[in-house]
């Protein structure tokens, strides 16, 4: 079932809040500029304290959108604009009304927990086909004008930000910033895989028809019959194939146990499913 727009934006907002909390309570108080527009904003805020991180990131994101429209012919989804500018607004609100202080002054703890919270928030946002950072635009410009791969371009942008933080905060803090960037990329991918993980199921059973009706009518999922021949019996048989969420598979397994305890089932882990009933392939 497709999610409502309201739910999508609610999920994105939750992800934005997590990223903002990691910035204001772990990164910024410890001068960890972990890449992105907010990393630049943390550096600028340290040099010019009167420029708040929220305001600076809002201005930078706005400027980068304009640059993209001029040089790249950028086409941004509404959700990406909402996420990037919304993050700046929430950061500003936290600074303005909550007066945040560091939860920990231990740089390693701040890096680890700040990265975990930020990665979870960013994974939520990315999973809704949105993005929080204008530095993607800088990476795209490097790709166009210097023919660098997007991945390498992003590394170059983050490296430059980390290098700038080394001049402002010192090499030790900059290395923690680099560690955060590396961990962030690894964790975000793993979290997104966890969000989208499903079970790929093959079933051989004398009750395949009843099982297929349960999948379609009760679980509201599709399934497919595949014609097969048993190598040992040399008899034709139907193999039932379906892709389900973890919760749906648990329900299906209980149903199969009731209708055919002798059924043969194989289950595989699928990290992403696109198409009918799952994520829209046009958005990926």
From TrEMBL:
A single GO cellular-component term from the record reads: plasma membrane
Recorded topology in the membrane: Multi-pass membrane protein
Span of domain DUF2179: 221-275
Locations listed in the record: Cell membrane
User: What Pfam families does this protein's entry cite?
Assistant: DUF2179 (PF10035), YitT_membrane (PF02588)
Q: What is this protein called?
A: DUF2179 domain-containing protein
Membrane spanning residue stretches: 9-28, 40-69, 76-95, 107-126, 173-192
Q: Keywords in UniProt for this one?
A: Cell membrane, Membrane, Transmembrane, Transmembrane helix
Domain of life of the native organism: Bacteria
């Amino acid at each position: 079932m497709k999610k409502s727009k309201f739910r999508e934006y609610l999920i994105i907002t939750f992800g934005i809040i997590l990223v903002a909390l990691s910035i204001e309570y772990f990164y910024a108080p410890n001068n960890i500029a972990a890449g992105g527009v907010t990393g630049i904003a943390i550096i600028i805020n340290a040099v010019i304290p009167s420029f708040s991180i929220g305001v600076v990131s809002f201005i930078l994101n706005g400027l980068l959108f304009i640059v993209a429209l001029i040089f790249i012919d950028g086409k941004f989804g509404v959700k990406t604009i909402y996420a990037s500018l919304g993050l700046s607004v929430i950061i500003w609100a936290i600074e303005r009304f909550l007066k945040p202080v560091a939860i920990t002054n231990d740089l390693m703890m701040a890096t680890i927990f700040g990265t975990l919270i930020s990665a979870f928030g960013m994974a939520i946002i990315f999973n809704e086909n949105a993005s929080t950072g204008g530095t993607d635009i800088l990476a795209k410009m490097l790709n166009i004008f210097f023919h660098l791969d997007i991945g390498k371009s992003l590394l170059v942008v983050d490296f430059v930000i980390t290098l700038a933080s080394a001049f402002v905060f010192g090499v030790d803090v900059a290395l923690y910033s680099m560690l955060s960037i590396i961990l962030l990329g690894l964790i975000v991918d793993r979290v997104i895989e966890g969000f989208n993980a499903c079970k790929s199921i093959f079933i051989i059973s004398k009750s395949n028809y009843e099982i297929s009706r349960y999948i379609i009518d009760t679980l509201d999922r599709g399934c497919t019959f595949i014609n097969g021949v048993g190598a040992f019996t040399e008899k034709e048989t139907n193999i039932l194939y379906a892709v389900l969420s973890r919760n749906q598979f648990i329900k299906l397994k209980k149903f199969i146990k009731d209708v055919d305890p002798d059924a043969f089932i194989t289950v595989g882990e699928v990290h992403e499913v696109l198409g009918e009933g799952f994520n829209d392939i046009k958005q990926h």
